[in-house]
Design brief:
Number of strands: 7
Strand order of the largest sheet: 5-7-6
Number of helices: 16
Shape: elongated
Strand content: under 5%
Length: about 400
């Protein structure tokens, strides 16, 4: 039952960068409640299994009126703690995180994690910790924990104190974890920088390393890292929703650190990654003439995903790196292109059709469009025929390809 008009005896406004669940837990602790469940229930918010896991994604002012009244806040103040939906029409599954549009699967407010040292300095839960790419604390150089060292259970919002587990273990007293090398902190540092979250005085002027990942938006960063992580884990889905859904933080850290290393020393390690994940000839997929596997058979979802899931222009560097690998190191690539059939060309010896080019290079329509759009192949399209398959490609461009 909603208790509109009722106020808590002890009230405080949310702290900067505080999470929604953390703020409610802090208010429950201030007023002597066992958990934030009573606050949610009294605020008219239905709780599933004792806690509302979607409270952070509530962007409806009407749904927060009762809770705001209980906490003595304006609804607008409470909404600053939630993740609103972006205004763009193509962002149906996205939310706003520190002003950035991101995929919902990367935000995990229902699986809290903490830095014991940060809690020791200021006892409140940080919102930045709810991003699954944030697996470490760059301020203290340690891995975040999502399981209590005292009872080994997953940390939950079903607790009455911000810093203390339901078993009574105070996380601020946890033994310091082993410090992490700088390269394992770089990804989290960049997320902090994009979100405008300062971790320490010396971090204010931190510059990202020379890595193509750090030219991307936050959403692009999530897409690139989780795409490579999915392929490394052998997960058919090219997004990261299956990786981030139930994984422990230490497992996510290992997975994302491995994916991050693929982008170091670009494109050398990327090419090594492609070589390691190139399928063996004959293990599924259609063989080309001569017994060599096609690109689809060799690279599977890596190949298709680069031209579908990662079709945005900001991922052109990944497609360029892939094309470079295919034409220099791919074991299924013929050494020299075959000569086009002269009688099939509208201008013998000068042009070849888009369909013939695809068969000649063994590439998909997506890849062919990319080669054309990036200027690697010159094209002439008949005025009365606008079909992509009827594009005319310069033969000299094919012959001169590396």
């Amino acid at each position: 039952m909603t208790t509109v008009g009722m106020h808590l005896l002890r009230r405080e406004t949310p702290l900067g960068g505080e999470s929604f669940g953390g703020y409610l837990t802090r208010m429950a602790q201030k007023n002597g409640y066992d958990s934030a469940v009573w606050l949610l229930s009294a605020g008219g918010i239905r709780c599933k299994h004792g806690v509302s896991t979607n409270i952070s994604f509530c962007d409806s002012a009407a749904g927060l009126v009762g809770l705001a009244s209980l906490l003595g806040l304006d609804v607008s103040e409470l909404l600053t703690l939630s993740y609103p939906r972006p205004t763009s029409k193509d962002a149906r599954t996205d939310y706003t995180f520190f002003g950035h549009r991101v995929q919902q699967y990367v935000l995990r407010p229902d699986r809290p994690k903490v830095c014991p040292a940060c809690l020791g300095e200021a006892a409140h839960s940080r919102r930045i910790w709810e991003c699954s790419l944030v697996t470490t604390c760059p301020r203290h150089g340690r891995l975040l924990i999502d399981h209590c060292p005292g009872c080994s259970r997953r940390i939950s919002w079903l607790r009455g104190k911000v810093c203390v587990c339901g078993c009574g273990y105070d996380w601020r007293e946890a033994a310091p974890a082993m410090p992490l090398p700088d390269k394992e902190l770089a990804l989290t540092k960049y997320v902090h920088q994009l979100c405008g979250v300062k971790t320490a005085g010396e971090e204010a002027n931190w510059q990202p390393p020379s890595n193509p990942l750090f030219t991307l938006s936050l959403r692009g960063l999530v897409s690139a890292v989780t795409f490579i992580a999915s392929q490394s884990r052998g997960i058919s889905c090219s997004t990261g929703r299956y990786i981030t859904s139930t994984a422990r933080n230490d497992s996510l850290h290992e997975t994302f650190s491995r994916a991050y290393r693929v982008f170091e020393d670009w494109p050398v390690r990327y090419h090594e990654f492609l070589g390691q994940h190139q399928a063996c000839a004959g293990k599924g997929g259609k063989l080309r003439s001569g017994g060599h596997p096609s690109l689809g058979a060799s690279f599977g979802r890596i190949y298709s995903g680069l031209y579908t899931t990662l079709e945005a222009p900001e991922f052109d560097f990944m497609r360029a790196g892939f094309a470079s690998y295919v034409f220099t190191q791919w074991t299924g690539q013929t050494t020299t292109p075959r000569s086009p059939v002269e009688h099939s060309l509208p201008h013998p010896g000068k042009y070849i059709t888009g369909t013939e080019t695809r068969h000649l290079l063994e590439v998909s329509g997506y890849h062919l469009a990319y080669l054309i759009e990036t200027g690697q192949l010159r094209v002439v399209t008949p005025r009365k025929k606008r079909s992509r398959s009827l594009n005319l490609i310069e033969v000299n461009d094919l012959v001169s390809r590396p």
